[in-house]
Peptidyl-tRNA hydrolase (Saccharomonospora marina XMU15), 199 residues
Amino acid sequence: MAVEQDVPGAGEQVLLVGLGNPGPRYEGNRHNIGYLVLDELAARVGGKFKAHKSGAEVVQGLLAGRKAVLAKPRSFMNVSGGPVAGAARFFKVPADGIVVVHDELDLPYGSVRLKFGGGAGGHNGLRSIAKSLGTGDFYRVRFGIGRPPGRMDPADFVLKDFSATERKELALNIDLCADAVTELLGRGLTAAQNTFHTR
């Protein structure tokens, strides 16, 4: 088992992964927040996503002074692992140099939490990635989407668009999550947790 590092892939190129489902039908879904945050990060590095043979769309650039590969798997969420593992192999990034941005039901809407390793917590995208990499020892940046109202099935909730109220704050929250990724790369996990876990 890998020893936790405070900075992802210290000194090496990092792989930033945003989870979502491809296609216009899913664009505004809560489950696609990873894609939305990666779009913001791509804008910050001044790049445009292009199809890559790994099965992801990829942008390369500098973020927080680090060489970063930004990747959005073009497979469905439940089978994200293949493209992520493919990109990691191609760009020679070890598991502890990977940062996955994803939605999190168990956090209030708009909150951001960072961690290293752990289980999938019922998230099929994380499960697929851990299976394909052979380890869960990668970084996660979790964007809170809250719990479904009433008796709504969580599987239905994550595939619905953000509410009108949520959309008012969405751009700000995407910026916040992108800031958290940047701080994780530049200053490490503890510093990023100290900054963003208090919000």
Observations:
- The radius of gyration is 15 Å.
- The longest strand covers residues 56-63.
- The chain has a mean pLDDT of 93.
- The first helix runs from residue 33 to 45.
